[in-house]
Structure formats: C-alpha cells, structure tokens
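User: Sequence in, structure out. Go.
Assistant: Echoing your sequence, followed by the structure tokens.
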Amino acid sequence: MQYNTSELCDLFADNIDVVEPIFTSFGGRESYGGVVTTVKCFEDKGLIDIIVQQPGEGKVLLIDGGGSTRRALLDSKNVQTAADNNWEGIICYGCIREVERLEDIDIGIHAINAIPVGADVEEVGSVDCAVNFGGVTFLPEDHVYADSTGIVLSPDPLDIE
C-alpha cells in the first residue's frame, strides 16, 4: 500500500506525532507502514538478525541504535531476510551499509546515515520496549507510516482507505 505522510498530517493532525527529519530513505520501497515492533541495541545487530527471521507482514521494525554512526546495524543480508519474511519496512536510529544493494530490495528503509563498518553480533539489547528518538516515543503496537517526505506515528491505525 502507498502512504503519503503529507496527506496523513493534513487528515489526522490531532492524532499523530511527526518524527523529526533526521532520517534518509533507503531501500527499494518508497512508502510503507504497519504495526511497530521495537528493538533497542547499541552497535550490536544480533537481536535484529533474529527478529527479521520472524513473519513481518503488516509490521515495521523500529530499531533504536542510540543514534550511533560508528557501526552499521543493517546490511544486505539482514534486510533481505526481512524482505523475504514480508516485513513492510525498517526504521533505524543508527547506520546501514551496502547502500547500493539495499536499493534493490523491496522493503522500505529509513536510517540516519551509512557507514561500511558492520556491528557486533552478540544479541545484546531489548525487544518490545518503549524507545524515544526523533522527538517521539515509540511503543510496541503503535502504527507508523513513512515515505520519502517523512515518518508519522499513531497509537491507532489510520483509516486511509
């Protein structure tokens, strides 16, 4: 499904939060949305690698990487796994790598930057917890909508049909 965050802001101004414009859009899908699944990890992608193996239809993986620009939490392997398991998109408050490969994968990706250095894989962090960045607090089961213009968050699904 296609989402237009500008229209969502016009229609649902009182029901949504707008994430600060700190993200760049990567990946092969321009817009995406779904129910939030959160993971909090710092310079370690072990939990991410596990979560993307789960069914992701109708879900968006939201990663709080602490805003680190020293190590990439996403790469072509874990992003392809997410796409293969039908995740709608991934929002990463951290870095990605292998930008050119990610552009060819049918999944939406927002991250703060890219760096070629990969993260550790020790499975350190938390899953399904509240995380806060970009001026908003994300809770598991919130609904997020993203496109090349921005990212909006709602506690409830937005009736856009």
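User: And one key feature?
Assistant: The chain has one domain: 5-153.
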